[in-house]
Amino acid sequence: MAPTPFQLTRPRPLVGLLDLPDDPAPAPVVVLCCGFKGFAEWGFFPPLAALLAERGLAAVRFNYGDSGMQIGDAVVTDLEAFRRQTISGELADVGALLSALPQLAPGRFDTSRLALYGHSRGGAVALLAAARLADANAAGAGSLRALVTWSAISHFDRLAAEELRQWRETGTWTAVNARTGQRLPIGLELLHDIEAHRAELDCAAAAARRRAPWLIVHGEGDETVPVADAEALAAAAAPPAELLRIAGADHAFGARTPFAGPNPHLIAALNATQTWLLRWLRA
């Protein structure tokens, strides 16, 4: 079945795609969170979503409201939106999407069987969202059944002191997209958000608070986020949690955009992920 596009307009516009199983009965649902400079159609997201749908799980992938991209875009088309990005904004987007699930595909989602997945910075966002859901569950709200992160960061302070100084002085930090060469400006909103909300954005604390069974997948050859980040998250995690190191795998498990097909590292990550999700969502 071809993916179905959707759009949310509040609290800020979000666009995304639904990959639904052929069986029309309500299905467990997995919300997929992209990383920094990622988007719903990047690299392994389409094959991951298709695999989950083939296994009877509904997959919801989306672009954050500050991604600056629409469905079908290959580059950032709204640089001002990208400039305004914050972690808190992306976390709010996940919360809004979770709240809107029943309206996205009426009758197709079993929201009592919910999972979150995230890659890179999206892994940290998914983790923070899982901790928030655990807090809400303690107050009597619904619970999260499973969490999977790939190449997740364990903290948001990732720039050297000199880069931070220049960012503060100029008001802009510029990220270069290695795939497209596009120069992407980021304003001080991101830096101020991280500094003003350290407790709320503490990944180690979130790892301890979340209760959903968590699979932490990381490549031992990750050139962007060292495997030490995964080890730190695993050390802070409340049970149940498992760390899967994939020998030789890089940050994206060998995947690129446009997707050129599977490879052994990606297959290992996909197989572990589907096994984990099926285990906990079908229980």
Describe the structure concisely.
With 283 residues, the protein is α/β, with parallel strands linked by helices. Helix content is 37%, strand content 22%.
Describe the 3D structure:
The protein is an alpha/beta fold. The chain has a single domain (4-156, 190-281), classed as Alpha/Beta hydrolase fold, catalytic domain (Rossmann fold, 3-Layer(aba) Sandwich). It is 37% helix and 22% strand. It is built from nine helices and ten strands. The protein has helices at residues 45-54, 79-83, 87-104, 121-138, 161-170, 188-196, 203-209, 227-236, 264-281, and strands at 4-8, 14-19, 27-33, 58-63, 109-119, 146-150, 172-176, 183-187, 214-219, 241-246. The strands form two sheets. An eight-stranded mixed β-sheet has the order 1-2-4-3-5-6-9-10, sandwiched between helices. A two-stranded antiparallel ribbon has the order 7-8. Strand 3 (27-33), helix 1 and strand 4 form a beta-alpha-beta unit. The longest helix is centred in the middle third of the chain and has 18 residues, at 87-104. The protein is globular, with a radius of gyration of 18 Å. The mean pLDDT is 96.
